[in-house]
# Entry
Amino acid sequence: MKNKDFWHKRFSVGLPLMITADEFRSCLETHHDYIDTVYLSSPMGDRFHAREQIAEQLKNREKVELFWKLVEIIKDKKYDINLEIVFNTPKLIPGDIKESRELFDQHDIKVDKVAVLDSIDWYYDSAKEYFPEAKIVQSVNNMKNTPEGLKTYKHKYDEIILGRQLIRNTEAARTVKKLGSKCVLLLNNGCSFICGGCREKAYCKRMYDKAREIHSAEYLYAQQSIMPFELHDDYFPLQYYDYFKLATRNGDADYINKTLDSYVNNKTEEYLAQGTKYYHLWGKLAWHIPYYDEFNLDRIREIKKQICDFSGSESERV
Ligand SMILES: [Zn+2]
# Structure
């Protein structure tokens, strides 16, 4: 088991909007030692949000007020947490990144990281121009699907996020390090493995159903989730991963608190003893949910042991 020092400032969590300011402050009080970054998208209209739910929430003025209250809390010096803006949709128009900078300036909020899509050239240039002091992150939404593909990114990134089908791919993590970037591992994937970015829910479901023709629901969950024991018991070559990203933007305070608690304190059985719904903490894909009650943790553990790809090298284990 990894001790708590191992997790110091290792997590990147999404800004939740189904939370009160008090709940959020209490969450940061408890977990700020472990949280390096909170990421969010600009509350400037639909085209800024890759997730439909967030776009809907931020149409509501009260939610926008809450958004700024939460941002103030993140930037409270005592928590020492970085703020990351994600420009991870292909719909932005020139001027959007500049206006985001102006908006955050108006609120006197410093932005520490900016995530962009490599596929649209001007995003990177614009991010560099308007957030010159920020680190630039390659968004998981535009992740190349192979280790070789990662080498074709046009720009040099401070961080590259690996999710979906690259989560168990050691070669991909090694490639990120060779590119000189920090490697961020998305833990609780909310997208079907072969979907490729979740632009459409129906497509994501079709991809899941296609995989189900070959594999059991239990296998797909084992493959697509990352459970706490995998990190604590070295199912992963952790030396390649600098940060761990959690998809928490559509979660509430309870979801964030329990997800962080489970990963930091290696609690898998403890949560599952309280209900199979807690499989959700470690794999957010909705298509798994109807099968939770049939899942067996021992079998999942066995599958995970078999599919973890360490390229056969014992020495890669930490
Ligand atoms: Zn998807």
User: Anything to note?
Assistant: The domain at 4-194+231-266 is CATH 3.20.20.60 (TIM Barrel).
